[in-house]
Amino acid sequence: DTEVTQTPKHLVMGMTNKKSLKCEQHMGHRAMYWYKQKAKKPPELMFVYSYEKLSINESVPSRFSPECPNSSLLNLHLHALQPEDSALYLCASSLPATRTGELFFGEGSRLTVL
Amino acid sequence: GENVEQHPSTLSVQEGDSAVIKCTYSDSASNYFPWYKQELGKRPQLIIDIRSNVGEKKDQRIAVTLNKTAKHFSLHITETQPEDSAVYFCAASARGSTLGRLYFGRGTQLTVWP
């Protein structure tokens, strides 16, 4: 299994809603990432988990709250988002930091904030 | 941190012609250079990568060259086809950087006209 699976594929939410994005991989990768991507722009790193511990938070607003329940799962909890948060949210995984290597991206969750 | 510059931002070629996209990086510690292709509405997908101990790598119609001294690397696509039309991102990852973190270029929109 070489897939990173993200759900939902599409999400529309109001600014007062609470929702979650989910990501799952079964490749034994121990580094997992959340990226935000606007149209025709490069992915922007948000969070990195290594061995289920948060290692990088790229000064992301607290309305985004990541969670890594186990080595295969990664969640992104959303609350009180703004319309400018509308974007494609990509989950990725890779081998641990002991070597550089390929990022495996999920298909993404396209988020629209009304 | 690492800074990756990518040129051109848009590139139009006739089917069958070659396309070249160039990137420069700033951190001499970078040792891994992947190229991602992203079709409209889809995830970024790795198409080829190169490590700093190699000067060139080929995979069918795609090749990447790396000049460590000048800190630049290039993607070459020969015999282009309409299905090569996509946004291409270069990236760099620094040896010893946290979690093999990737720094992306700003992307090149490649259009191949039939």
- How many β-strand runs of chain A? 11
The H-and-E topology of chain B, N to C, reads as EEEEEEEEEEE
Largest sheet composition of chain B: 6 strands, mixed
Percent range of helical residues of chain B:
under 10%
Taken from the alpha-carbon principal axes, the silhouette of chain B is globular
- Helical amount among residues of chain A, as a percent range? under 10%
Structural class by SSE content of chain A:
mainly beta
Rg of chain A, Cα atoms, Å: 13 Å
Largest interface, with Cβ-Cβ < 8 Å? A-B, 24 and 26 residues
What does this structure look like?
The complex is a heterodimer of chains A (114) and B (114). Chain A is mainly beta. Chain A has no helices and 11 strands. Chain A has strands spanning 4-7, 10-13, 18-25, 31-37, 44-50, 53-57, 64-70, 73-79, 87-94, 104-105, 109-113. The termini of chain A are far apart. The mean pLDDT of chain A is 91. Chain B is an all-beta fold and 114 residues long. Chain B is built from no helices and 11 strands. Chain B has strands at residues 4-7, 10-14, 19-25, 30-38, 45-51, 56-59, 62-67, 72-77, 86-94, 102-104, 108-113. Chain B is globular. Classes of the chains: A mainly beta (114), B mainly beta (114).
Structure described in brief:
With 114 residues, chain A is mainly β.
List keywords for this structure.
heterodimer, A: 114 residues, mainly beta, seven-stranded mixed beta sheet, B: 114 residues, six-stranded mixed beta sheet, five-stranded antiparallel beta sheet
Task: Set down the secondary structure blueprint.
The complex is a heterodimer of chains A (114) and B (114).
Chain A: E1 4-7, E2 10-13, E3 18-25, E4 31-37, E5 44-50, E6 53-57, E7 64-70, E8 73-79, E9 87-94, E10 104-105, E11 109-113
Parallel strand pairs in A: 2-11
Antiparallel strand pairs in A: 1-3, 3-8, 4-5, 4-9, 5-6, 7-8, 9-10, 9-11
Chain B: E1 4-7, E2 10-14, E3 19-25, E4 30-38, E5 45-51, E6 56-59, E7 62-67, E8 72-77, E9 86-94, E10 102-104, E11 108-113
Parallel strand pairs in B: 2-11
Antiparallel strand pairs in B: 1-3, 3-8, 4-5, 4-9, 6-7, 7-8, 9-10, 9-11
